[in-house]
Amino acid sequence: MSNLLKTTPRQDGFRMPAEYERHDGCWMIWPERPDTFRLAARPAQLAFVETATAISQFEPVTMCASPTQYRLARSKLPEHIRVVEMSNNDAWMRDTGPIFVNNGVEVRAVDWGFNAWGGLQGGLYFPWDLDELVAQKVAEIEKVHRYKAPMILEGGSIAVDGEGTLITTRQCLLNPNRNPQLSQAQIENHLQNYLGVEKIIWLENGCLFDETDGHIDDVCCFIKPGVVALTWTDDHSDPQFERMNEALDTLQASTNARGRRLEIHKIHQPDPVCFTAQESATIEAVESTYMRPEGMRMAATYINFYLANGGAVVPLFNDPHDAPALRSLQQLMPDRKVVGISGGREIILGGGNVHCITQQQPAPQSR
Ligand code: KQY
Questions:
Q1: Is residue 33 within 8 Å of 90, Cβ to Cβ?
Q2: Phi and psi at residue 36, in whole multiples of 5°?
Q3: pTM value?
């Protein structure tokens, strides 16, 4: 199916729905890189199985696995999870998969440029040629029309409310290692044209210790129209403290596309998650340009959760803040079943979490 469109979603009346709208399913990629995930990704694979299984109680899940991993993935995942063969360079479907848009009767895919979070200027690995094809392949499998957006963008770097508002960070979208040829105004224009948004809220920075240059999906997300969950610490001595306060100030001073102030809820972060000597020693240096030494802190937050149909799937870190985070999120979303993922630490050791490894496919009519 040759499905490439020459128009833009905005011209055609399509928009990116919020994650809390109705989904037809969720896409993931099976992890295998030994220079991203320790012990040849075996512990991460268990965490991905846990995540896929948790999401599958709410909506259909498709796991993409490379040719050499297909049999293993198929044997580890429950039968009701679809496994399709798809080559890839790594397992971050949020960033390499398509961003779906809809118009009430049809779903289409937006295929963004991808350069492994910075290309040869601070990107995480080379090559990334297989990752670049993931969005197109997903669109082909789903037989949906596809737009090719004229800029680099990762799904984890934006949060939308489906009603015209998008939150992102300057640290990531204006980073010279993404789209150095584009001005802020041109980037805003592309976001408007390809995601159907009107209002863009720019935070200055993402979290410290984030290897993606400040993805928003570690900082905050929309959980309902006008309502934002924000990662937080009360510890003034924590280096994240300043960044979180800066984010809070910006969000408090902002209005959404409808001109309304945002309701912001703080979710206290886990205690610092740092590589142990054993974890670090069991990551193999292959083609990754990113080192994971003992003691290095990761950008661990509970905000990196996935909203499924009637559910919320939240990474846990075996930390005293796990239970309060689950409780707060459950209170904020009483209409959803909030489920914790015990393998959150294994996923964050690879640099992301539950949100980063998933990509929702909205229903054609998702509201
Ligand atoms: O934050 C994300 N959306 C992705 C994290 C990618 C980490 C790569 N090692």
A1: yes
A2: -105, -45
A3: 0.98
